[in-house]
Design a protein that fits this description.
Elements: H1 5-33, H2 39-49, H3 58-72, E1 79-80, H4 89-98, E2 103-106, H5 113-122, E3 126-135, E4 146-154
Parallel strand pairs: 1-2
Antiparallel strand pairs: 2-4, 3-4
Helix pairs in contact: 1-2, 3-4
Amino acid sequence: MKNNTFFEEMKKAGYAYEDERTERKKIKDAILAAKDIDEEALKAWYAEEEKHPFPFSKGQMTAYYSWANSLMRNTDAFEVNDLPWEKDTPDFIKALKAAGINHIVVTDRSTALMEGIHLLAELGCTMTGLETVTRREERWGDEEATKMPGIGFDIA
């Protein structure tokens, strides 16, 4: 789980996007800093900015954050502690498949959990049963492992 080419490439693309966005923002700041703001230049900037949307959907980002959090927490399984919204779940599953993730453990405790579980099943995921994820966070030093109850799903 630690080395995952798909998620590593997402990370690189996200950083590249942010670097480019920072450079584009400098151009906007220069336009706005001028004594007499060039309205046409500002309109052109906004038109150009619209051509550079963030490269990933919310569903893809939820998959990425699940991976990143699993790494940060040193989990013993691919933990999903926050299922995506219904409209974002298909992209979430596609991203997991593209990353080669074939099993997740959902530890989400939200009020929409039941809807999320049913949506995973509708999208072809198979519930495998109750599981426990062990987190071994080391942010503060010598922390004890934490056990999180979850539900396992195979990604088809």
